[in-house]
Amino acid sequence: MNCTAPRDGSSSPPQDSAAAEQPLAGVPFEALSKTYPGRRGSEPVPVIRELDLSIEDGEFLVLVGPSGCGKSTLLRLLAGLEIPTAGEIVIGERPVSQVRPGRRDVAMVFQSYALYPHLSVRDNLSFGLRRSRHRSLPQQLQDQLSQLSRGLPAFLRVRSPREELIEQRVHTVAQALELEPLLERLPKELSGGQKQRVALGRAMARKPAVFLMDEPLSNLDAKLRNSTRTRIVDLQRELGTTTVYVTHDQVEAMTMGHRIAVLNQGRLQQLGTPMELYRWPSNLFVAQFIGSPPMSMLPVVIGPGATLLLGPKRLSVEGPLAAALPALEGQTLTAGLRPEGWRVAPATNRNLPASVLHCEVLGNEQLISCRLHDGDHLVQVRTDPDLTVKPDDVLHLDPEPSGWRLFDASGEAIARQDPVADSPTLPELG
């Protein structure tokens, strides 16, 4: 489904000059809430809870979170398909919470294709571009004759500058998404992956102020998903359109977005660049949600001299967290370490013995699930694929001292001494 309309509230022909480029649109959500009424006398169901989030002009923002966390609802609120219970949505400098969908200048692509079955691929791509309320009757007639005569010899065709610009835009999008051989086909003659690309292209062709995508690649096979992901990123960089993208796929989240917003139970857990979230999660939820496999968690006591006590073992801590530990000495915290933070090492007193439970060789790496002998805790280790191990083997693990992340009893991260900037610089959009 596409929700498209021009930025000034009226439809107009596509422009083909730099001077006609429209300004980008940031999207602030201000104390936004959405609650659905309960069924059969039950309590109301809050889905979005006082969300404050600002999407920058031209930014590619990825929304992630577990099922039911409010990702798709947030997109529907932005598109105007749902009305917020409280708060405000702004596109550019214009509040739009009470503006009907057709006047918000957003384009949305859902998991479903929502193509017009009686229109060819070419006409599906150009459908939003041809919507117009301000053409005179002679102009409409000229455009229609141009469409009808486009298959005739050149000297018999009726020229329409507007139709020529539309055709240029359709050609550009079709070329970007490899749809050129399919332009004359009907949707019933396309595969599922081809239909999804047409749905993407129809929204992209309109060049809206804000582009919304709700898991648009979920129906594609792995190879096509990878190539289409690259095309979406390239096209967004070329157009500079503010984009909000919902996905469950960790690879899509880490590789596509300038920033990632993690939602849980309708609340924003963390907003930052992919590597900020991976390296410095703000709480236990983000630490275990971002990353595949997730961060391993161990209960530790803060010992003297910037160390962690795991049973009888004393583990050193280095880097930005080390300076915070003296003030926490004696406290019980949760320590997390990413799979690449565990190194397979010789059997020494300082290393942690662990029994191998399961091995996954992935070609370029190997993931080993282990159970520590000290405390019976499960950890996952990312290591060289040439390491030969089997279940019940005993490994000795040496944790990377600078890789530890610490969380208090409420699940909040212990702050590093050199916190990341509040407003990270976004990558250049080309």
List the topology elements:
Blueprint: E1 27-36, E2 45-55, E3 60-64, H1 71-79, E4 86-91, E5 94-95, E6 106-109, H2 121-130, H3 137-148, H4 161-176, H5 192-205, E7 210-214, H6 222-239, E8 242-246, H7 250-256, E9 259-264, E10 267-272, H8 274-279, H9 284-289, E11 296-303, E12 307-310, E13 313-316, E14 332-337, E15 342-345, E16 352-361, E17 366-372, E18 378-383, E19 394-399, E20 405-407
Parallel strand pairs: 3-8, 3-9, 6-7, 7-8
Antiparallel strand pairs: 1-2, 1-4, 4-5, 9-10, 11-12, 11-14, 12-13, 14-20, 15-19, 16-17, 16-19, 17-18
Helix pairs in contact: 2-4, 2-5, 4-5
Characterization of this structure:
With 430 residues, the protein is of the alpha+beta class. It has helices at 71-79, 121-130, 137-148, 161-176, 192-205, 222-239, 250-256, 274-279, 284-289; strands at residues 27-36, 45-55, 60-64, 86-91, 94-95, 106-109, 210-214, 242-246, 259-264, 267-272, 296-303, 307-310, 313-316, 332-337, 342-345, 352-361, 366-372, 378-383, 394-399, 405-407. The strands form four sheets. A six-stranded mixed β-sheet has the order 6-7-8-3-9-10, sandwiched between helices. A five-stranded antiparallel β-sheet has the order 13-12-11-14-20. Helix 2 (121-130) packs across helix 4 and helix 4 packs across helix 5 (192-205). The longest helix is centred in the middle third of the chain and has 18 residues, at 222-239. It starts with 26 loop residues before the first strand and ends in a 23-residue tail after the last strand. The model is unreliable at 1-21 and 420-424 (pLDDT under 50).
